[in-house]
Amino acid sequence: MRDLAGFELLTRAHTYLSEVAAAVPERAWGSPTPCSEWTVRQVLNHARLDQQAYGAAITGTGWPDSDPFRPADALDADAQTALEKVLRGVVDAYAQLPADSPEVATPLGPLPFPLAAAAAAMDAAVHAWDIAVATGQDAPLEEELAEGIRLAADRLADHLRDAYGVFAAARAVPATAGRAEALLAFLGRDPHWTPALS
After folding, report:
1. Partners of 83 in the beta sheet?
2. What is the pLDDT of residues 149-162, one digit of tens each?
3. CB 103: neighbour CB atoms within 10 A?
C-alpha cells in the first residue's frame, strides 16, 4: 500500500466526496447521518462550505456566504453542480502552490502544505463517509486515504473538538482495527454506524 500525501490526497478525497454525493438517491436527502443533528443534505452543504473556505483562504475571494456549522436544508442550486464547482476551485487553488510551501493559508490558520492539504482532505473524506453510510452506499473510506488523512487528524482533531465541536470524543477500537476504522473512531465516529443507530 503506497502512501497518499499532499495534492494527490486532496484530489482522492474530493473524488470520494463527489462520487458519493452523485449516488445519493433523491429520497435520501433528508435521511439522518452520523452527524446526529444533520441530514444528508445538510452534511453535503457543510462539506461544500468547508471546502469553499479552504479555497478562499488561499485565493482571498469566494468565502462561504453562510455558516458551515449551520448548514441550510437546501442548496441554492443542484447539490452536485454546486459541489463540483467548489471542488474545482479548491483543486485549482492548491495546484498553484509549491508542495513544499511552509505556510499555506487555511480556515484553521497557516499550515505547511502537506498538513493543509490533509486537513482539507480529512474534511471532505469524513463527510463523504457520513453520506455514504447514511444512504446505504457500498463506498467505504479507503485504507490509503485514511492513512494519509491521519496526519491531519493527529495534529488537528483535538483543536477542532475543543474550538468547534466538530468531532465527538475519540472511541476505542480493537488492536486489529484497520486504518479507516481506527481513523473514524479517533474522530469520534462509530465505524459501524447504520441509520438504525441514529
Report:
1. none
2. 998 999 999 888 88
3. 11
pLDDT value at 67 more than 90: no
Which has the closest alpha carbon to 25: 197, 195, 196? 195
Please tell me what DSSP assigns to residue 105. -
Is residue 185 a contact partner of residue 170, using CB atoms and an 8 Å limit? yes
User: Are residues 91 and 14 in contact, defined by beta-carbon separation less than 8 angstroms?
Assistant: yes
Of 68, 52, 189, 179, the C-alpha closest to 134 is: 189
Buried b (16+ CB within 10 A) or exposed e, 111-132: bebbbbbbbbbbbbbbbbbbbb
Q: Could you write out the DSSP letters of every residue in 143-195?
A: HHHHHHHHHHHHHHHHHHHHHH--S-------TT--HHHHHHHHTT--TT--G
Asked whether 52 and 44 are in contact (CB, 8 A), the reply is: no
Q: What secondary structure letter does DSSP report for 172?
A: -
CA–CA dist 26, 42 (Å, integer):
14
Q: Which amino acid is at 198?
A: S
Cell numbers 487553488: residue: 93
- For residue 32, which phi and psi values (nearest 5 degrees)? -70, 160
Predicted TM-score (pTM) of the model is 0.93
Quickly count: other Cβ atoms within 10 Å of residue 31's Cβ.
18
What gap in Å lies between CA 87 and CA 16, rounded to an integer?
Answer: 11
Rounded to 10°, the helix 79-95/113-134 angle is: 160
Rounded to a whole number of angstroms, the distance between the first and last alpha carbons of the chain is 34
